[in-house]
Amino acid sequence: MTETNAKFLKNAWYAAIWAHDLPNATPVAKTFLNEPVVLFRIDDGTAVALEDKCCHRAAPLSVGECDGDGIRCGYHGLKFDAKGVCVEIPGQTQIPPGATVRAYPIVERWNMVWIWMGDAAKADDSTIPDYFWLKDDGWKAATGYIPMQGNYQLLVDNLLDFTHVTYLHKNTLSADPEEAKVPVKVERGDRSVAVSRWILGHDAPPLFRQGRGL
Ligand code: FES
Description:
214 residues; Rieske Iron-sulfur Protein; 9% helix; elongated; binds FE2/S2 (inorganic) cluster
């Protein structure tokens, strides 16, 4: 599948960035579903996501500057607010009504910033997965990124199929070949598929033991 004909699930929340990786006053360029997006925070700390392409001469807004309640293009200085509306054009008083860039629904939750790349009218933040443990004092979370070059569907296939764990990760995520016999539970929701399995009566895998200092 090439980039140009890739099919993406648009009407869904995507984890865009760890909250602590979106600093104040510094725009961050990202690509989601093949679309260039600039992430930044306005003065009150609210996260914003806009199309990373100025409506004037298509310069990436991510190389501009955060400016109070918006972002200023680094080419000719147009300023856009958090809704993607141009609110200032240096040197002129008239702002064309079409001077806008696309704004994406964005929500900060569970120490992550979530973005909705599809129809904004359908963005319901109650459907963001519950990852409370990422921001709960009773849990310790490890954050980071694992860049991969390949079709995302291959990764989904990998993560939904636990049968590989015993063999591919035998020195890290698996402690006992017998684990391969533990059944996997598959749950289908309206918009989701989840797999899980409880492995009881076995030693903890090496990576988990390491995490506990054992
Ligand atoms: S390209 Fe952005 S202001 Fe001209």
